[in-house]
Amino acid sequence: MAGTSFTVNGATETFGIIGRPVRHSLSPAMHNASFQALGMNRIYVPLPTSSIGDGIAGLKALGFRGASVTIPYKQDVLPFIDVLDPVARRIGAVNTLLIREGESGGEKIVHGFNTDWIGANRALEEKIRLRGSRVLIVGAGGSARAIGFGLLEAGAGVVICNRTVDTGKKLAEQLDCPFYPLERIGQASADILVNATSVGMVPETDRTPVPQDLLPGFAVVMDIVYAPRRTRLLREAAAAGCQVVDGLAMLLYQGAAQFELWTGEEAPLEVMREVLADRLRE
Ligand code: NAP
After folding, report:
1. Are residues 123 and 240 in the same domain?
2. Catalytic residue among 74, 127, 169, 170
3. For ligand 1, atom 35, which residue shows the shortest CA distance?
4. Could you list the residue range(s) of the whole structural domain that residue 153 is in?
């Protein structure tokens, strides 16, 4: 592996993650390992942020080349972006910033992207062709929204199912797709099931959003919960004969897409996967 020693010097390019809190983020470990593996003079740092406007001004003033954006700023960051990717605009949330010099020099241009949908699509596409598939998404929060718009980009059909009817119906209207309340999930049929709720996450690992008897109807089941990696939903889906995709895959591929936007190089997937797997070891 190239570049196993790591030095910071006057020419080091800086990247970071803005959010609150950021101390539990896996992104610094994943991106720094990737920069090192490819011998790049770049560093990625946690940037706990109390004001998104000040945070963006700080990134520009301090010469940062890019950043991840996490909770609670994925939507609040939008007014501070100069050039917004069209899919991120439809999703209404940004998790990746690329900061470029303006034409005249000195001026900084902030580009905004959403790589969560890219991560989810790539994770699913390892198992099944998305174009023409029908995907049942359980959940209607920020992740469900990004995944839903991303699946439409890939040419898949989407169905939304959510506990709170108003929230679910609103997202389904925006996606122009069918909606089912969670208690009627059995009436929805699809090729792929995606859990985009937090149900099953630590500490409530004995919970699952979907009754076990419905699982044999799906070819692929993806759980975006990554703590634990092997959720009850995924264990039951595997037992039912479905192909399963865990939350690490989406996390990995959204990070890989960030890396590629920032560097223009192919991401070192195995390095990134190893870092995440190590951090998420149960
Ligand atoms: P969010 O915006 O807060 O949305 C949460 C969703 O979960 C809502 O649809 C909510 O339904 C539903 N929900 C919560 N508790 C529930 C319960 N007891 N029963 C049924 N539904 C319930 O959260 P988010 O940002 O989308 O994140 C969701 C999960 O995805 C989290 O566990 C997060 O860690 C994970 N995540 C993973 C990745 C990855 O890369 N793998 C990326 C982002 C997020 P209501 O509308 O009824 O409240």
Report:
1. yes
2. 74
3. 225
4. 117-245
99 and 148 in a single domain? The answer is: no
Over residues 127-167, the pLDDT tens digits come to 999 999 999 999 999 999 999 999 999 999 999 999 999 99
Is the pLDDT at 4 greater than 60? The verdict is: no
Which residue puts its alpha carbon closest to atom 17 of ligand 1? 199
DSSP calls for 121-181: HHHHHTTS--TT-EEEEE--SHHHHHHHHHHHHTT-EEEEEESSHHHHHHHHHHHT--EEE
Whether residues 88 and 205 share a domain: the answer is: no
| Probe target for ligand 1 pocket from 69, 118, 143, with the most ligand atoms within 8 Å of CB | 143
Q: How far is the CA of 167 from the centre of ligand 1 (A)?
A: 12
Pocket test for ligand 1, best of 197, 201, 205 (most atoms within 8 A of CB): 197
Write down the pLDDT at residue 5. Answer: 64
pLDDT > 90: what percent of the chain? 95
- Is pLDDT at 1 greater than 80 in this prediction? no
Tell me the pLDDT tens digit for each residue of 65-77: 999 999 999 999 9
